[in-house]
Inverse folding.
């Protein structure tokens, strides 16, 4: 199989992992031989905007992707927030350190071109993938978290069935909402 790019990456917080994130990963894995998902704000959990810990967020992606053929080419790694280091440098060094056998990324996948601005000098290509569609024009992690917090069952339209148990446990049983 021939791919347009060697190694693509994206940065997602996945609070929680939703169908828009999945759409972005699908595009990356269709176009790239290797794909890397960096889960951002990996050091944070238990806060309003980052309620879920890194390993739960990683598990949500794995639940959806582990049965797909492309999973063997996909890596999921944490990236922590930093303040004293340029973001582009920090992200690319994290990939290099965590995945030393992978080539330097040649494309970054984003939901908004502004996310790429930090990386334009270091990563030659950008793949824009809207996380929204005609069916789901207002899809965001904040929206999904708010629906979960309000016990609005419509959140189930935006997350994968494979993750319902994790959402129930982490948000309701563990009292995050």
């Amino acid at each position: 199989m021939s791919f347009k790019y060697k190694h693509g990456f994206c940065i997602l917080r996945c609070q929680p992992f939703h169908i828009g994130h999945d759409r972005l990963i699908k595009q990356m894995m269709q176009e790239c031989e290797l794909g890397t998902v960096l889960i951002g704000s990996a050091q944070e959990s238990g806060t309003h905007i980052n309620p879920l810990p890194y390993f739960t967020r990683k598990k949500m992606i794995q639940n959806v992707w582990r049965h797909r053929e492309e999973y063997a080419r996909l890596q999921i790694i944490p990236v922590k927030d930093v303040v004293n280091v340029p973001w582009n440098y920090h992200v690319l060094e994290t990939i290099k350190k965590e995945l030393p056998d992978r080539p330097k990324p040649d494309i970054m996948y984003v939901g908004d071109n502004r996310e790429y601005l930090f990386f334009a000098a270091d990563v030659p290509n950008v793949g824009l993938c809207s996380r929204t569609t005609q069916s789901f024009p207002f899809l965001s992690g904040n929206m999904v978290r708010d629906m979960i917090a309000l016990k609005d069952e419509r959140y189930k339209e935006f997350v994968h069935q494979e993750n319902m148990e994790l959402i129930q446990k982490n948000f309701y049983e563990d009292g995050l909402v």
